[in-house]
Amino acid sequence: GENVEQHPSTLSVQEGDSAVIKCTYSDSASNYFPWYKQELGKRPQLIIDIRSNVGEKKDQRIAVTLNKTAKHFSLHITETQPEDSAVYFCAAPPVVGGSNYKLTFGKGTLLTVNP
Amino acid sequence: DSGVTQTPKHLITATGQRVTLRCSPRSGDLSVYWYQQSLDQGLQFLIQYYNGEERAKGNILERFSAQQFPDLHSELNLSSLELGDSALYFCASSVDGDSPYGYTFGSGTRLTVV
Questions:
Q1: Using CA atoms, how far apart are residues B97 and B53, in angstroms rounded to an integer?
Q2: Which residue in the set A42, A89, A102 is minimally distant from B100, CB to CB?
Q3: What secondary structure letter does DSSP report for A92?
């Protein structure tokens, strides 16, 4: 099955700085890579995703990059704000038998943005 | 509101007991996925149902079972509960069973076993 590793487990930045979270995956056939944000006590929410036919995708202050050769993808948050403080999860689907129907999640990164 | 409804929000029960968690997917979504979230294990996939049939199984204990009904709501049954079963249980739904696109989580059920 898919194995997703996420680093770092905790990240503390000053407001206005950038934050980068990295994930590696094991199944070279995986082709969809979402990122979820989970605030304390709330549900994980999709914030951005990328499919393997592109190398980068941006949405305002958030971007995701994908390196299929190295099997890793990263979340970039620029001009961080206190409301960006949350746990961020990366995920990848296993492609077993051609069906990528469930997501395997990384263990999460606790991002703290200090005012 | 994500459109995925989970009940109850909180559940406190004793060891050895049995509980049922309920999930209603977004309108039009056919797949329901169950995840367990504990502090040290992150989001662990338990089981997936698609249009009433079991589609994929993850790290689900034999004491746990699930089903999806004709109206597409799903129930996760946890029996012979142990302290270690205390966790947040999320369900997610998506339109079909063959892609994870549009994967949306419910608000979760916090289970506390005492």
A1: 10
A2: A102
A3: E
Q: Do A93 and B58 touch (CB under 8 A)?
A: no
Given a cut of 90, whether residue A24 has pLDDT beyond it is yes
Helix, strand, coil: what percent of chain A each, to 5? 5, 55, 45
Residues 6+ positions from B106 with CB-CB distance below 8 Å: A43, B2, B4, B5, B6, B23, B90, B91, B92, B93
User: Which of A89, A100, A108 is closest, CB to CB, to B100?
Assistant: A100
CB contact under 8 A, A102 and B2: no
Residue A107 zone, left/alpha/beta (φ > 0; ψ -120 to 50; rest): alpha
Q: Which of B2, B42, B50 lies nearest to residue A105, judging by beta carbons?
A: B42
Which one-letter amino acid corresponds to residue B50? Y
Per DSSP, B95 falls in state S
Q: Do B58 and A34 touch (CB under 8 A)?
A: no
* pLDDT per 10-residue tile (average), chain B, 114 residues: 92 98 93 89 88 88 96 97 96 78 89 97
Structure tokens at A37: 């944000």
